[in-house]
Amino acid sequence: MLAIGGLEKTYDGFAFGPADLTVADEVLCVLGPSGSGKTTLLSLVAGIVEPDRGSITLDGRSLVGRPVEDRRTGIVFQDGALFPHMTARENVAYAADDPDRIDELAALLAVRDVLDRRPAALSGGERQRVALARTLAADPDAVLLDEPLSSLDAPIRRRLRSDLRGLLDSLDVPVVYVTHDQRTATALGDRIAVFRDGRVEQAGTPAEVLDRPASRFVARFTGTENVFEATAAGDGGGGLVLRVGGATLRTTASGPTEGTVTACVRPSRVRLYGADESVERSENALVGTVERWLNEGTEYRVVVSLDDGPSTLVASVRPDRFERLATAPDARVRAGVPPAAVHVIR
Ligand code: ATP
């Protein structure tokens, strides 16, 4: 178990913390915009930077004040940083003497065929996997990863992401994985901690953070594009009823039945229907005009300008559904929003 408590570090112009986090034998993905303190967290745990205040313990022993090499934490940086004059095998062997372990890790990370090359003769993805093998070879008590997939192109990143999931799960040590990519965080994290301005804004399972963001910032940063100011207008029996502009939205949320709240709906939860189709009775029906759309590869992102209610609504639509809808700009459409898909932030 890795535990940090009241951890603080101030640089000129940036304050990290106070931050409290615990990481069991699981993957904690640290998600946040550039400059939010993600790397600072790893540097504090690894001992590259000492905190001004607070505690860091790993399996019960305090790490604060200990030199880097005594902490038994393994860190992998974005660029992989291998010794350039050594082959990949020598780089990994630097951390582990047992040749069986080197071959086992090389096989796991699919770099067995390139072990006799020097870093200059490896691709970026191979370099990062060798760097990860070198870190794991030392058998660390905690693994700290700083955007290890960021410099890879999308197909390799997707493949490595799914390989990494199995590998990280099998380690049985706390893993802290820094990323600014929400997809990587949800794919790899048992839990996610969202950082903002040096503080933990929300920590929870991917489902908790994505479906029940604690703030507008978390909602927007994790891909909830539909964030509206709404007025609570009583309880409709099944949950809170909201007014958003001229529209009424039924929700399954509980909360104050008057006053201003924030309503969030993920684009993937909005269903689009043609103008002549009827919206399912269970859903909130909103009518509007297609403003624009974007083909994002696996789905279409459609922006609908609504007649009433929040001015625009973003829906992500599967290609087969998109093709059946007349979604040319200016097409009239109906949007269905299930009450359970409306998350309310007080
Ligand atoms: P990115 O995603 O861009 O890597 P990050 O979330 O990892 O960002 P950090 O690298 O932790 O952010 O940096 C947080 C802030 O602390 C930044 O404003 C940075 O300029 C500042 N900072 C980091 N290290 C130092 C340092 N050694 N001295 C002074 N300021 C620093």
3D structure, described in words:
The protein contains nine helices and 20 strands. The protein is an alpha+beta fold and 346 residues long. The protein has a six-stranded mixed β-sheet with strand order 6-7-8-3-9-10, with helices on both faces. A five-stranded antiparallel β-sheet has the order 13-12-11-14-20. A five-stranded antiparallel β-sheet has the order 15-19-16-17-18. The mean pLDDT is 91.
Structural class: alpha+beta
- Specify the overall morphology: globular
The neighbouring-strand order within the major sheet is 6-7-8-3-9-10
Helix content: 10-25%
User: Can you count the beta strands?
Assistant: 20
Mean pLDDT: 91
Brief write-up:
With about 350 residues, this protein is of the alpha+beta class. The protein is built from 9 helices and 20 strands.
Structural features:
single chain, 346 residues, alpha+beta, six-stranded mixed sheet, five-stranded antiparallel sheet, binds adenosine-5'-triphosphate
Write the layout of secondary structure elements.
Blueprint: E1 2-11, E2 14-23, E3 27-31, H1 38-46, E4 53-58, E5 61-62, E6 73-76, H2 88-93, H3 99-108, H4 124-137, E7 142-146, H5 154-171, E8 175-179, H6 182-188, E9 191-196, E10 199-204, H7 206-211, H8 216-221, E11 226-235, E12 240-244, E13 247-250, E14 260-265, E15 271-274, E16 284-295, E17 300-306, E18 312-317, H9 319-324, E19 332-337, E20 343-345
Parallel strand pairs: 3-8, 3-9, 6-7, 7-8
Antiparallel strand pairs: 1-2, 1-4, 4-5, 9-10, 11-12, 11-14, 12-13, 14-20, 15-19, 16-17, 16-19, 17-18
Helix pairs in contact: 3-4
This protein binds adenosine-5'-triphosphate.
The site of adenosine-5'-triphosphate has 12 residues, from helix 1.
